[in-house]
Amino acid sequence: MNPAITHRHVIVRLLNGPIYQEDMDLWGRLGAEWDRIKNHFFEMGLEVARDDSAGYAYVRQADETQEELEDWEDASVAPLPRVLRRARLTYHQTIFMVLLREELLRFEQDQEEGDHLYRSAMDLREIMTPYYPEMHDEKKVHRQISGIISKFEEWGILKKVRDKDEGLYRIERIIKAKLPPEKLVDVRDQIRRRSPELEEEIEEDDI
Q: N or C, which end of the chain is more exposed by having fewer CB within 10 Å?
């Protein structure tokens, strides 16, 4: 572990997105100074979610029950304002999230070769195109899907690892935390019904 990488580097990185086990220096420092880093975020009303088996860690808003929020006037300290804001996914963004999660689930179940799942830009377009049946302008469909891919890059769910041939993307394991198996079933059912309640949320850094 590089001694030049301190707990402050880990904190800054977590504020900008997840840390993965492959980031050896940051991951090692996270483990070495876990209590210090965890307590830093606790003071901000945040918590560090860490999955050692999957090899990732990220920051999320600490849970507060509705009862705690309603009763704060009787307490000596008011609840902290939210640091992370919730961005509401569109219908097609939600579909894309489900498709990526299903791809990763099959990859893990089939125990395909390698530790990571990669998909080309063409692969991603192909799995999404059927969900635009009302649009007959192929270029417009591709632009919309490219916009979704860019947004998922911004959220840290996809990582572009190669630019050649329109790009190759790695599906990051953090999607397992954003859409666990039990929630995947519910969202998939809503997509099939195209339910008006279909509105997924994802936390974003608002610092």
A: C
